[in-house]
Amino acid sequence: TRRDRQRTTNTGVQIAIFKALGAEPPVFGHHNLLTTVSGEGLSKRTGALSIESLREDGIEPMAVASLAVLVGTSENVTAAHDLNELAGHFDPAATSKSASKFDPDELFVLNRTLMHHMSFEEARDRLIVLGISGDKAEPFWMAVRGNLDRLSDAVAWWRIVGEGPQEPAEFSGEDRDFLDQAFELLPEEPWNGTVWKDWTGKIREATGRKGKPLFMPLRLALTGRTSGPELSDLLPLMGREGTLARRP
Predict the structure, then answer these.
(1) Can you give the CATH number for the domain in which 37 is found?
(2) Is residue 18 part of a domain?
(3) DSSP per-residue letters across the chain
(4) 36 and 108: one domain?
(5) Does the pLDDT value for residue 98 go beyond 80?
């Protein structure tokens, strides 16, 4: 049984009760007190950083476990993939006796790391619940996972890939002319993994644009966003017909 050091004084009494009842006492371990960033104790009564609230925020269980176990120790707080890996990083002797702050910002960093390395096999069933399935689900996941803070963020990208920008971007007259020319140069299908490179190469040669002036209008036209997954990974998922439908 593991609990905070404030309960140490109760432990002797509880061990005595176990023995008086003829039962074998559990092994007790006492960790340092965890507080909020402002120094308040984590209270079930107030619901401060409750498991329920963290789940609703899309925080992965291993992000919570990694921070709860490693904060206040001499170990770097890193995202463990599973409990066995986490146990390998934990040394009770390295735990501080002073209170440690449980910072939600650290949770989001750990959560992001877990997202970026989560395999499709791990995510598959949860993606199906979110409506992400079919032949494109795996290449889609591998394309977008590096840009997710939470697994539920994948839904917005699934819609962008399947339906187009959710909020069409505004373009200057010059960029609109550029995009007209660019979409005329879109290669015919079948496509392979080099279609993005082939297309942008033709655009560069025809327009003289390169770098951000070339790529940003294309990204905005295709996704409605200024940043996101590699377009070389998304374009094959959109298909030629779906790509042409995004022409401003």
Answers:
(1) 1.10.1160.10
(2) no
(3) -EEEGGGHHHHHHHHHHHHHTT-PPPPPEEEPPEE-TTS-B--TTTTTT-HHHHHHTT--HHHHHHHHHHTTBSS-----SSHHHHHHH--GGGB-SS-EE--HHHHHHHHHHHHHH--HHHHHHHHHHTT--STTHHHHHHHHGGG-SSGGGHHHHHHHHHH--SSPPP--HHHHHHHHHHHHTPPPSSP-TTHHHHHHHHHHHHH---SHHHHHHHHHHHHSSSS-S-HHHHHHHHHHHHHHTT--
(4) yes
(5) no
The tally of domains found in the chain comes to 3
The residue that leads in pLDDT, 93 or 8, is 93
Domain span including residue 155: 118-163
Q: Are residues 186 and 215 in the same domain?
A: yes
pLDDT at 27: 80
